[in-house]
Amino acid sequence: MDIQEQINALREQLNLWSHQYYDQDAPTVSDYEYDMTLRELERLEAEHPELVTPDSPTQRVGGQALDAFQQVQHEVPLQSLQDVFAPEELSAFAQRVQEVSAKPQWIFEPKVDGLSVALEYVDGVFVRGATRGDGQVGEDVTENLRTVRSIPLKIKNAPHRLIVRGECYMARTVFQKLNAQREENGKPLMANPRNAAAGSLRQLDPKIAAKRRLDCIIFNIQLTDGPTFPTDSASLDYLGSLGFPVIDHPVYPDLASVSKAIAELGDDRERYPFDIDGAVIKLDTLEQRELLGATAKFPRWAAAWKYPPEQKETVLEDIVVQVGRTGVLTPKAVVRPVHLAGTTVTNATLHNQDFITEKDIRIGDTVILQKAGEIIPQVVSVVKEKRPDGTKPYLLPRTCPVCGAPIARDEDGAALRCTGAECPAQLVRNITHFASRDAMDIEGLGPAVVQQLVEEGLIASPGDLYNLDFDRVAQLEGLGEKSARNLKKALEKSKSQGLSRLLTAFGIRQVGAKAAQTLSRKFQTLDRLMEATEEELTETEDIGNITARSLIQWFAAGQSRHLIETLRTAGISFESTEQPVGEALAGKTFVLTGTLTQYSRSEAKKLLEAQGANVAGSVSKKTSYVIAGEAAGSKLTKAQELGVPVLTEADLTEILEGNFREESSWR
């Protein structure tokens, strides 16, 4: 690979990572790996300046304004900072500053790992807030920023105009609670507090942003027509007097003091409620900053010290397996206690079986630990030369360590999951899903009430809902006799919801509401469905081999059988409410377009499906017929282009009345 190809490959990789980090709030690599890759690109471009382009990642701030928000042109650019990673780089930066300022005073700040924002005030009133974006153009997120309680909406004794720059962040404790809630609800976990904060500020609904409990800390005056100051530290003191939450900003007289502060901050980052991804060193005197100026990307009077991820050796003494509320098995390494990034670590995440296998992690190994995102300890690598004799590759159990049910691997990922219908580890989530609107639709049985019932020992399975002691329910905090009566009525009503809703309520992997309706329509009773072979299941429209195997395995499990019999005894209907599937249109695919006069679109769809047809949303070569009503549009055009037979509403009526004819007779 020649130099140009190397540079192009690095730029492409960095642009992808930057897009994932800034615009999607979903990083795929560590900050350190990104920084080292950027440093390699900078080295190659320095050696070959003729290859530098204006759009190189070395020439611009990462990120861009999203189309979902109104764009804001920053009056004063929100630049990023030059990174330094070693004492000699810090010394070189200081020497460049000293060419202008013989005895510089250094202001020192922790570098908050959040999302940079500009806040604008007019006559003391907060009027607009924007993200950094690419430094020149950001996103207007004013309404979301109004929900951040640490941002003052009105300040006293303010100048006519004031724009300040700050960092919005999510406190570590808030982040941990948010991820715990997301895990409980079966949602993917957020990568780190920085991306959680960025994603929260980019919510289109401010109510969601408000629930995320963000904070903000201010570190600069961008623009003002108010008082001027000789130093940055004086301006920050002024902002503090106005009521802004201001960053810590001690001032040091020499580089030795700054180096000591860098080391102390690195050892004690945990004392702050927010993540820190470095330390900021700035020339304090504002007049001298003007003399130094800036490049297109960085001010020449400031730098950001970036801490490399701290790594420590320790011994992996055991692996324990936890079962989450979604049934996923998560292996955890129990390690010999070691001090890492400010805390004593006794365990580390191992993610999943693929992660363990890839790194060949075994009990008894000496391993290298590192904190992912400065929070979660994880195993980076194994020191194989220190591996003791007799160790064996580690495999997660084949049955659930909590309930003993079989374990199944997700077809679309690396997760291993407990299949137990009554697994205690999944109890709250399973029952909440069972009662949800698309399932048994039991009004008044939300997550909080389910949690209460479980904690009081009133239920240990979805089937127990139908044998509740309602006198005890009425005594629970926040409920009472009226709530107990209403819950009893809702449970009684749910008994006749029918087979498709019951199948949805079971939460069988790969079986959602649509598949449940299809199965209910074809097999008509739960007992008939339980007896179906894999071949019979896969002959059903939209039911493939994976779904068929999932159904057979679920029905064969002891916990599933127990739940079904409990529900049978309680009087739950196992009968379908859907009309049986006919055979007249089996194997035919219809597409509906335009306005029908005799039927609604949903009615026509149900009637066709009742005779075995598949009703699709788009036209393709596999489409058998297109039914065109009035004002038919692009689907009709597509059908004509592909030669797909086009039928009228009158033709549809004939078909539904059983007068279906062979394709050759249709125009």
- CATH C-level name of the domain at 71-305: Alpha Beta
Provide the helix percentage.
Answer: 25-40%
Largest beta sheet: strand ordering: 2-11-10-3-9
**Count the strands?**
22
Provide the descriptors you would attach to this structure in a database record.
36% helix, 5-stranded mixed beta sheet, Rossmann fold, D-amino Acid Aminotransferase, Chain A, domain 1, 5-stranded antiparallel beta sheet, 667 residues, Helix Hairpins
Describe this structure in words.
The protein is globular, with a radius of gyration of 31 Å. The protein has a five-stranded mixed sheet. It has a five-stranded antiparallel sheet with strand order 14-13-12-15-16, with no helix packed on it. A four-stranded antiparallel sheet has the order 5-4-7-8. Among the domains are: 3-59, Helix hairpin bin (Helix Hairpins), CATH 1.10.287; 71-305, D-amino Acid Aminotransferase, Chain A, domain 1 (2-Layer Sandwich); 589-665, Rossmann fold, CATH 3.40.50.10190. Helix 1 packs antiparallel against helix 2 (31-47) and helix 16 (499-506) packs across helix 17 (513-523). The protein is 36% helix and 19% strand. The chain is α+β, with helices and mostly antiparallel strands. The longest helix has 21 residues, at 3-23.
